[in-house]
């Protein structure tokens, strides 16, 4: 176990350095955008004097490097500053939105992960049958269509034509859990359709790869039924690639869903990030991007740890 | 004095009965006679209509809402802020459904002879949602929010002429102007001029979202939603809904779907491309209201080749406005005539000949100017107006017939108004509606205006602009605006293809007044207090 802990510590260390580099990149990328926050806030009707007063008030007259270092000094103490536009602390602006995003991601993952792994096992078992072909064609179609398009298709058939589900999520504070699940079903289903194919096909490929190995041949020769060959013998060795692809898809569910949020009017963090970028609200942009980066770093780490735990050989690199 | 007033009143009342004057003129003459606009409103007998019913929750889907919006009236810019401001805050005056100026917080207003000192008498019935009475101090602090060196308000330019704001008792405010401005009460309808509670130090408390409007905010998340409940004891007629639930729907498709499925009762804008399809739904009524918002194409009058008036007019003649309105605006527009004064604004001169597509005349003008084979570049971006790039391409095709080569330059959407507008000699611009021609001309056509987007400097035009500003006589003023319109049309550097309509929609169970205000979408942004549930 000790080697795993040291691996985790090492990877977390790298992760912090990665975050630092990302924060520099984001800061200067925002700086490179044409126009500035004063122009974005005041819009078309601003005069040069009001723009100057606004810049003064926001401290935009200081050089970019100084502003970055000031932000960094706060950030290392977990103070991510206040939104330049609303004046609210960044943490309070983001927390509810991030919670919404996590909820939707979890909702989709709870449906998508079991379905895709079970489906993956089944299609591996029934490979090259009609079932395999149909499942592949359907999932590949759904992953190949843009997610907003899938969303519109679902809205058309499940909301407009049949009125089974609401077309817009419109969350409110006073909804109970069942109502919440009902109102967010369509966005969750869209995400499920988007991520299922990837995980299912990876499961299928990983298992089929193993089916040519001698020990599987052995299991077959001794008369083990096909489902048992796959579930008991092949699957345990296939976990590593499956966990990796699951982790990647989970990260996608958290960071890549802004289009789904827009289509279903779901108040997640993606919309917040887009607004913050268009207004050049650097502290909010920075915080959102760091959350995204941290999500990727942590999920990748979790995937590696998971892979090592399921495959002891990986603990002893040659 | 009293008798004179009565005589005048009787005369205009008689004219109103016989249909001799419009309500707008009636209200104006009444104001000149010093009659309170509330009284005048009462005098103007409206056609009988069914009394609106009270009750229900109005679910209102709005576009253009950002998470980064705030309650600061000085930085109001998004539609979310503007609609909300008209729902939870009050203004001194408001634009009525028929386009006339009516009372909001101010019961009446009057000016001295040269329109340089305006007195607003406030209603004594207005209160903030916190329970505090609204007095002159709140109004003064709210107006001062946009004045002074340190202000970050986008509305600073509107109040630059104001030299002093004083109170006259708790319920009267006296505004002194450096020079006369007969339109000053109209300026008070600008969406930035929302009245907020004053702090003791003369600043305003805007952060709490307190206001004196028809509805008070219960819960709110910017860019997501807002729930409001009726402010019992609001100082005006209306506010029929018990509750208002604003839902931000930035995506055109989500907006339309929500309306079709009945998730919302009204949406603030609809996609023109699908207007025809939406019209077929019997549960949906589309409101198509001509507005004073305009698409303009300014040319720098001090930059070759636009420094020659014949070249400018040739470019104006080379445009087929009917085709542009049909193909780009899907018919939802009023044809422009190259002067920035829309039929939705007061004093519109209706006898100015419409400029039509005439490539032959354009050709001969170019010949006269010695500019045959003219080649110009026009900058545009789709963020200006949906279809702005297509429109420029269509114009380029139309101009070919006049022997003009127009190169369409597609600029980045982001930062268009800081990097392209006022910088490129020929570009495409979208203007929001302004209440009066004076405001519009002062903003973008006056020789020394910061936003003189065409660099047009016509001495006669500027002379008339200043004269009209302080002219209280309606007829004389209208005549001046007519002459200015002719100057802008025949000498100016701005092509105005069309004034775009406001196109929004509501479900058929919503009752709306006969006339919808043209100052903003959704009945001048006041749908929440002017509309009701039917049946």
Question: In summary, what is this structure?
Answer:
Chain A has 318 residues and is an all-alpha fold.
Structure report:
The complex is a heterodimer of chains A (318) and B (535). Chain A is mainly alpha-helical and 318 residues long. Chain A has two domains: 75 residues, no CATH class; 222 residues, Orthogonal Bundle (MetI-like fold). In chain A, 76% of the residues lie in helices and 0% in strands. In chain A, helix 5 crosses helix 9, helix 5 packs parallel to helix 14 and helix 6 packs across helix 9. Chain A starts with a helix and ends in an 8-residue tail after the last helix. The mean pLDDT of chain A is 86. Chain B is α+β, with helices and mostly antiparallel strands. Chain B has 18 helices and 21 strands. In chain B, the strands form six sheets. Chain B has a seven-stranded mixed beta sheet with strand order 8-9-10-1-11-19-12, with helices on both faces. A four-stranded antiparallel beta sheet of chain B has the order 4-5-7-6, with helices on one face. The longest helix of chain B is centred in the last third of the chain and has 18 residues. About 1% of the residues of chain B have low confidence. At the A-B interface, helix 2, helix 3, helix 5, helix 7 and helix 12 of A face helix 7 and helix 13 of B.
């Amino acid at each position: 176990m000790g080697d795993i802990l040291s691996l985790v510590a090492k990877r977390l260390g790298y992760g912090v350095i990665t975050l630092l580099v990302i924060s520099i990149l984001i800061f200067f990328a925002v700086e490179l955008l044409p126009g500035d926050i004063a122009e974005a806030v005041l819009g078309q009707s601003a005069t040069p004097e009001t723009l100057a007063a606004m810049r003064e008030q926001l401290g935009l007259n200081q050089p970019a490097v100084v502003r970055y270092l000031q932000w960094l000094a706060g950030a290392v103490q977990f103070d991510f500053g206040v939104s330049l536009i609303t004046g609210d602390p960044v943490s309070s602006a983001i927390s509810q939105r991030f919670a919404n995003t996590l909820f939707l991601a979890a909702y989709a993952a709870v449906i998508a992960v079991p379905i895709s792994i079970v489906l993956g096992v089944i299609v591996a078992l029934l490979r090259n049958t009609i079932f395999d072909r149909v499942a592949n064609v359907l999932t590949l179609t759904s992953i190949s269509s843009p997610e907003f398009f899938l969303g519109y298709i679902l809205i058309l058939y499940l909301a407009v034509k049949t009125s089974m589900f609401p077309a817009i999520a419109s969350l409110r504070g006073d909804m109970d859990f069942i109502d919440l699940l009902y109102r967010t079903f369509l966005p969750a289903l869209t995400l499920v359709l988007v991520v299922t194919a990837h995980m299912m096909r990876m499961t299928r490929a990983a298992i089929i790869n193993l089916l040519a190995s001698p020990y599987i041949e052995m299991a077959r020769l001794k008369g083990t039924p096909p489902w048992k060959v796959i579930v008991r013998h092949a699957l345990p060795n296939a976990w590593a690639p499956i966990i990796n692809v699951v982790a990647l898809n989970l990260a996608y569910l958290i960071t890549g869903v802004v289009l789904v949020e827009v289509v279903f009017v779901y108040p997640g963090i993606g919309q917040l990030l887009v607004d913050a970028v268009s207004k050049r609200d650097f502290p909010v942009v920075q915080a959102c991007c760091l959350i995204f980066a941290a999500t990727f770093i942590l999920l990748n780490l979790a995937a590696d740890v998971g892979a090592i735990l399921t495959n002891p050989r990986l603990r002893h690199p040659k | 004095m009293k008798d004179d007033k009565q005589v005048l009143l009787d005369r205009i009342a008689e004219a109103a009965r016989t249909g001799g004057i419009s309500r707008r003129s009636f209200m104006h003459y009444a104001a000149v006679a010093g009659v309170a606009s509330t009284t005048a409103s009462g005098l103007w007998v409206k056609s009988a209509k069914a009394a609106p019913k009270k009750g229900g929750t109005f679910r209102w889907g709005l576009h253009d809402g950002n998470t980064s919006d705030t309650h600061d009236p000085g930085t109001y810019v998004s539609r979310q802020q503007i609609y909300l401001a008209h729902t939870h805050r009050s203004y001194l005056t408001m634009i009525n459904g028929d386009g006339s100026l009516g009372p909001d917080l101010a019961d009446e207003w009057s000016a001295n002879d040269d329109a340089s000192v305006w007195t607003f008498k406030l209603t004594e019935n207005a209160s903030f949602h916190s329970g505090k009475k609204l007095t002159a101090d709140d109004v003064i602090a709210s107006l001062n929010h946009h004045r002074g060196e340190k202000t970050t308000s986008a509305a600073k330019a509107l109040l630059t002429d104001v030299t002093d704001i004083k109170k006259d008792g708790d319920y009267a405010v006296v505004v002194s102007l450096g020079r006369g401005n007969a339109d000053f009460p109209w300026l008070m309808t600008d969406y930035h001029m929302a009245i907020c509670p004053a702090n003791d130090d003369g600043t305003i408390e805007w952060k709490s979202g307190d206001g004196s409007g028809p509805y008070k905010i219960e819960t709110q998340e910017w860019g997501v939603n807002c729930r409001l409940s009726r402010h019992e004891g609001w100082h005006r007629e209306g506010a029929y809904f018990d509750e208002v639930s604003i839902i931000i729907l930035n995506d055109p498709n989500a907006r339309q779907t929500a309306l079709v499925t009945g998730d919302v009762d009204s949406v603030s804008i609809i996609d023109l491309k699908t207007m025809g399809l939406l019209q077929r739904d019997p549960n949906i009524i589309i409101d198509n209201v001509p507005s004073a918002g305009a698409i303009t194409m300014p040319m720098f009058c001090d930059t070759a080749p636009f420094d020659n008036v014949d070249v400018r007019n040739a470019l104006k003649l080379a445009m087929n406005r009917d085709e542009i309105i049909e193909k780009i605006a899907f018919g939802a527009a009023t044809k422009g005539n190259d002067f920035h004064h829309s039929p939705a604004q007061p004093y519109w001169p209706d006898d100015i000949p419409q400029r039509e597509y005439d490539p032959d005349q354009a050709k001969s003008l170019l010949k006269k100017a010695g500019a045959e084979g003219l080649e110009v570049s026009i900058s545009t971006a789709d963020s200006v107006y949906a279809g702005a790039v297509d429109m420029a391409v269509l114009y380029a095709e139309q101009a070919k017939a006049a022997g003009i080569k127009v190169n369409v330059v597609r600029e980045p959407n982001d930062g268009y108004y800081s990097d392209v507008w006022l910088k490129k000699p020929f570009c495409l611009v979208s203007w929001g509606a302004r209440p009066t021609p004076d405001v519009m001309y002062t903003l973008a056509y006056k020789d020394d205006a910061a936003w003189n987007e065409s660099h047009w400097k016509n001495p006669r035009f500027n002379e008339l602009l200043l004269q009209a500003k302080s002219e209280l006589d309606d007829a004389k003023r209208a005549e001046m605006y007519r002459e200015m319109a002719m100057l802008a049309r025949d000498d100016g550097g701005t092509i105005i293809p069309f004034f775009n309509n406001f196109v929004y929609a509501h479900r058929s169970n919503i009752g709306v007044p006969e006339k919808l205000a043209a100052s903003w979408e959704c009945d001048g942004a006041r749908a929440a207090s002017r509309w009701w549930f039917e049946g």
